[in-house]
Write a structure and sequence with these properties.
Layout lengths: L1 H33 L10 H6 L5 H8 L3 H32 L5 H12 L7 H11 L5 H5 L6 H12 L4 H8 L4 H12 L1 H16 L3 H6 L8 H11 L4 H35 L2
Helix pairs in contact: 1-14, 3-14, 4-8, 4-11, 4-13, 5-8, 8-11, 9-10, 11-14, 13-14
Length: 275
Amino acid sequence: MKLLQYLRTALSTSVLLAVAVGMLVPMLWMLTLSLKEFPEQYRTVSDLLAAPSTTTNYSDAWASDNFLRYFVNSVLVSTLVTIGNIVFCLVVGYALARRRFPGRSFLIASVLGVLVIPQQVIMIPLYRLMAEFGWINTYWALIIPWLVMPFGVFFMRQYLMSIPSDIEDAARMDGAGEWYIILRIVMPLARPALTVLAIYVFLSNWNSFLFPFLFVNDEAHRTLPVGLAFYLGKQSIDWGHLMAGASISAAPILVLFVLFQRRIIEGLTAGALKE
């Protein structure tokens, strides 16, 4: 029995280590290329690793072209979209979890239906809609369509359904209004889930390429992923500068995860721990 348990533990550990290595190797390779000057000139990996390291690629990438503007645009768009999802997904999720009204089941089914629709399907209709509104090459096209994400609504509804409503009922008996209950009672209780939602939304919009590429044609409104794609074209195959730009782009996400990893894990496991 102990031998079987040991084998299961060893197998699980081996699988987790293999997955971790598979995730870390591309990041380490990106970092290695970003620290080498003209890495494409080396024919073997050993020659590349033996070459002296430099941070010149980072300073060049940050100072070249409109990289800083792309970075600021990504921060602005991702932050506003994240705030919008925190507010709207919480309110809508609360309504679907606590209220009974005509058409509720249809709305829940609609949210689930939207989740399985690929983004490529809505690409042309959404572009035509943005063009009719006159939002092409504006921040509106990068922000407004994504203020409420179906996953966020579904996630918050499921989380709030796992929280007993006794405290809310007691607050209503004391005369508290719905907005007071949402802001002072529901939001603090849902903080772990809101943290997970915020990280997910910020990450999704920070790395978004397809729709920002379609909706924005001028450099003033480009986000970082789109800017990196054009940067590759302008720099030919200058892998050192490209990998430096990609490393800078990945840095905020890594910092957010390191700062909020405890809350992310709490949010993902809280629903499973409730009785």
